[in-house]
């Protein structure tokens, strides 16, 4: 077994685990099969290289409070396909970015995530699972944290403690292959920005867990669901949007969206709804039970401006 810095590669995961200087871990392909995932470890499976050798995977990491410290780069040579690779981030360091290659089929991350740089997953095509990830205690921003990820699935994030987060701008932006997302357990009570949060999640078909979110502190929701082409139903029931001033382009180009639930919305303080429903050519029903007349009038006016008012039934009772 050849060791390269903090990195090991092997064919038989179980047989080789004793050679890796990390806590014991069971072999796993899926999140629910991992029982003893060590901290600050990235495991990834490389498929058939098809002769495309001499590639590298890059890990960027830093000190937990690394505002004034340059990040550190580690290059992992991919010497063979069809095997798992295990990379152990040095003790006391936090993950900034994991840059993969297209041949990676599965990635499992158990890491401390840094407040300064956040986490970026670049060129990840296979499924991604997070196991026992922790945030820096001072972490408040998730700006574009999981943006540009090419994975069809991002597992293990539903139970993240996001209660201290204030900025969710672009968290999933440009995740064009992502198909399903469950955020039921996210506590977003301190978030002030959700603009572009799901922008251009073009393949997203199921987005659940947003109903009854406490969004009372959010002020910006511009482009939040813009270009979610495959969403057919969206339940934003009982959102307290009384602090939101900007909703421009919020549902723009959701071309398959048919049903929108906005029960309990109060848009009295919303001043910008430009192009909010532009291109929502399939929209036929909006539920607005418990909404005041000002909110209903603003929605109707924007539907008319965007040219689809005659196609939509607004249900208020």
Which characteristics define this entry?
single chain, BspA family leucine-rich repeat surface protein, six-stranded mixed sheet, 2 helices, Leucine-rich repeat, LRR (right-handed beta-alpha superhelix), four-stranded mixed sheet, mainly beta, 18 strands, 317 residues, elongated
CATH class of the largest domain: Alpha Beta
Question: From the helix content, strand content and strand pairing, which structural class follows?
Answer: mainly beta
The largest beta-sheet arranges its strands as 1-5-2-7-10-12
Tally of contiguous helical segments: 2
Estimated radius of gyration: 22 Å
Average pLDDT rating = 85
Percent range for helical residues?
Answer: under 10%
Q: What is the count of distinct domains?
A: 2
Tally of extended strands?
Answer: 18
- Oligomerization: single chain
Supply the CATH architecture of the largest domain: Alpha-Beta Horseshoe
The string of secondary-structure elements, in order, is: EHEEEEEEEEEEEEEEEEHE
Find the CATH topology of the largest domain.
Leucine-rich repeat, LRR (right-handed beta-alpha superhelix)
Strand fraction equals 15-25%
Any idea what the shape is? elongated
């Amino acid at each position: 077994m050849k060791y390269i810095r903090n990195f090991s590669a092997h064919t038989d995961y179980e047989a080789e685990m004793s050679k890796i200087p990390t806590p014991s871990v069971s072999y796993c392909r899926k999140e629910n099969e991992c029982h003893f995932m060590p901290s600050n470890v990235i495991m990834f499976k490389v498929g058939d290289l098809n002769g495309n050798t001499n590639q590298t995977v890059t890990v960027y990491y830093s000190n937990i409070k690394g505002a004034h410290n340059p990040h550190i780069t580690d290059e992992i040579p991919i010497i063979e396909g069809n095997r798992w690779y295990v990379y152990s981030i040095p003790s006391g360091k936090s993950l900034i970015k994991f840059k993969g290659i297209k041949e990676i089929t599965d990635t499992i991350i158990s890491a401390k995530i840094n407040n300064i740089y956040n986490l970026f997953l670049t060129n990840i095509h296979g499924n991604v699972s997070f196991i026992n990830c922790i945030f820096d205690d001072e972490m408040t921003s998730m700006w574009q944290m999981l943006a540009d990820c090419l994975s069809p699935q991002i597992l293990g994030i539903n139970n993240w403690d996001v209660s201290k987060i204030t900025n969710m701008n672009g968290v999933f932006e440009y995740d064009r292959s992502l198909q399903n997302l469950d955020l039921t357990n996210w506590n977003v009570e301190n978030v002030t920005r959700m603009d572009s949060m799901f922008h251009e999640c073009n393949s997203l078909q199921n987005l659940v867990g947003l109903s009854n979110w406490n969004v009372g502190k959010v002020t910006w929701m511009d482009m939040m669901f813009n270009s979610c082409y495959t969403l057919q139903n969206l339940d934003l029931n009982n959102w307290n949007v009384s602090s939101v001033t900007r909703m421009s382009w919020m549902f723009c180009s959701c071309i398959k969206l048919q049903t929108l639930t906005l029960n309990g919305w109060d848009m009295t303080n919303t001043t910008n709804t430009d192009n909010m429903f532009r291109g929502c050519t399939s929209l036929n029903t909006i539920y607005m039970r418990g909404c005041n007349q000002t909110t209903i009038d603003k929605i109707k006016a924007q539907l008319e401006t965007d040219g689809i008012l005659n196609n939509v039934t607004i249900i208020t009772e």
